[in-house]
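Anyone up for a design puzzle?
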């Protein structure tokens, strides 16, 4: 049993494992219930690759129960949707993961991380790294933005995201394939930054 499996088993001992989409109790080795998985709108073609990226994958549409699960994760109510989304990423972006030398995440600001107690994209990225046996590194650090992205239209998102990140670890990434994981991609502005 791998470390992430042991963590899930230990957590299930204290509280039941729940589907991140509907809240129903599910088995210890499950990440979601079958009805919810069947109702997710999976994306075979995620659309245009955001500027500055060599590849791109989006797992499911940001609608319905998937949207609700992401919002619960982003608002600090529950961490467990991160595991389910990580497994969906592993299952649906296998080629990109295989090509990656390092996995990282779009970082949260320090203030946001303190408020939630975690960085949601980092939770997903660490789980993807564990499952795929790839190294996870915090390569980026967030520079506080003028406004929250969710409040802006596409043009203003691109402008607001410009300069939003700096390299936290400037050495060791030249010539390497880096897989960047984010929780939501609306316009691609954050990933392009």
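Challenge accepted. My sequence:
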């Amino acid at each position: 049993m791998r470390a992430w499996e042991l963590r899930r088993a230990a957590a299930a001992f204290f509280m039941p494992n729940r589907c991140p989409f509907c809240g129903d109790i599910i088995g210890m080795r499950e990440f979601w219930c079958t009805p919810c998985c069947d109702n997710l709108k999976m994306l075979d073609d995620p659309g245009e690759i955001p500027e500055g990226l060599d590849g791109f994958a989006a797992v499911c549409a940001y609608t319905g129960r998937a949207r609700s699960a992401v919002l619960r994760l982003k608002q600090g109510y529950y961490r467990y949707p991160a595991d389910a989304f990580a497994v969906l990423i592993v299952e649906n972006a296998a080629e990109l993961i295989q090509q990656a030398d390092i996995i990282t995440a779009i970082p949260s600001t320090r203030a946001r991380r303190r408020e939630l107690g975690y960085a949601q994209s980092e939770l997903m990225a660490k789980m993807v790294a564990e499952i795929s046996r790839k190294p996870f590194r915090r390569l980026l650090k967030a520079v506080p933005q003028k406004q929250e992205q969710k409040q802006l239209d596409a043009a203003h998102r691109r402008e607001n995201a410009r300069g939003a990140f700096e390299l936290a670890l400037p050495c060791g990434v030249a010539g390497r394939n880096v897989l960047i994981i984010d929780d939501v991609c609306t316009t691609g502005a954050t990933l392009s930054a």
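A detail worth pointing out: The beta strands are 102-105, 140-142, 165-167, 178-181.
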